[in-house]
Amino acid sequence: MSVSPDRNLHAPAADETGAKMPRHVAFIMDGNGRWATARGLPRTEGHRQGLAALRKVIRHAGRVGIETITIYSFSSENWNRPQAEVSFLMGLLRRFVQRDLSELHEANVRIRIIGGRSDLEPGILALLKEAEDLTRHNTGLNLVVAFNYGARSEIVRAAQELAAKVQAGDMQPAEITEDAITAALDTSGLPDPDLIIRTSGEMRLSNFLLWQAAYSEFYFCDLYWPDFDEAAFDKALSCFCSRERRYGGLDAKAN
Ligand code: IPE
Ligand code: IPE
Ligand code: MG
After folding, report:
1. Residue closest to 48 by CA, chosen among 82, 93, 18
2. Can 142 be counted among the known catalytic residues?
């Protein structure tokens, strides 16, 4: 199956009505296990089908001109699952890098990984690094993969980095600003997510992008992730386009 986005644009696109499209869409890809259980299949089959849905989403994001997508692929809390499921998910990551990386590279996709790295197994670390290094200079869709990611631990790591600079005398406490914290996070340099989509009917963040989501729009859909397709994505995008973002101010008509 091809993962190539059909085209890659940099500027945020507009839909046919001229409404502004999101620059950055983040996905909490949830419901793989329930998708499988509902069909009498092992949960692992849900994860396999979830990867197929992800390929569709990457392709479609490029086609509609979204600049960045972030996918929650494995949380820092997902290590608490049974060992067999964790191993299967690691195998799936390995297969994704082995099978899809060259095609993503050809499609000009730039891959960036966010999440804790310090206690990852060397084999996994090498895969993540390979994906980032190969695609580092690409200029198309940014694909941000949240792996071993937890927002609280990301914020803790950023706080520790800034504290170390202050302790070394390279920074004043007053220089710990919102911009300094933003720059110390794993997502440094990326725009905040405009839209966060969570599938499977759950309405929570599960430790995803807590800092970056301050003014994100949320879209929850009942489909399990393996059933999420281009039509579901378009529906979420058109819902986003109909929203008025006020950032604490007043809407444009009230000015
Ligand atoms: C999301 O699906 C994939 C990961 C968390 C890795 P789940 O595995 O959480 O599926 P449900 O929520 O149990 O159905
Ligand atoms: C969030 O889903 C993590 C990913 C999608 C990778 P979970 O299934 O782990 O979240 P909870 O446990 O339902 O909150
Ligand atoms: Mg889940």
Report:
1. 93
2. no
